[in-house]
Amino acid sequence: MAYASVCKHRNLGEGEMVPFTVEGQEIILVWPDGGELKAFTGVCPHDNGLLKFGGFNGRLLTCTLHNWVFDGRNGEGLSPTGCALEEYPLRIEEGWVQVDLPATVAE
Ligand code: FES
After folding, report:
1. Per-residue pLDDT reduced to its tens digit, 63-81
2. To test ligand 1's pocket by mutation, which of 63, 85, 86 has the most ligand atoms within 8 angstroms of CB?
3. Ligand 1 pocket member 66 (CB < 6 A)
4. One CATH from 3.90.550.10, 2.102.10.10, 1.10.760.10, 3.40.120.10 for 2-99
5. In what order do the strands lie in the sheet containing 60-62?
6. What was the pLDDT predicted at 27?
């Protein structure tokens, strides 16, 4: 695994969810109101819906395919429970948001 630069931190705002495709992988950066910037998979664990089409109200992230709801602070499933978004390590280096993505398996 290696950190990949995603975007400049100054381009993000608290209360926002921003999707990116990085090295062919769909991710979302989520900055909850009053919380810390997080990086999650951009693919819903239910049925692989793309979360970039979902909604974020500053705390709750909703997948529009079947309305599963996740906590933007930690990716935990709230409706239903017992699931979670995969979270990736995130760091800020010289103003860049960098995310440590899992290695992809060549097909
Ligand atoms: S794919 Fe996300 S709720 Fe079904």
Report:
1. 999 999 999 999 999 999 9
2. 63
3. yes
4. 2.102.10.10
5. 55-56, 60-62, 69-71, 77-79
6. 97
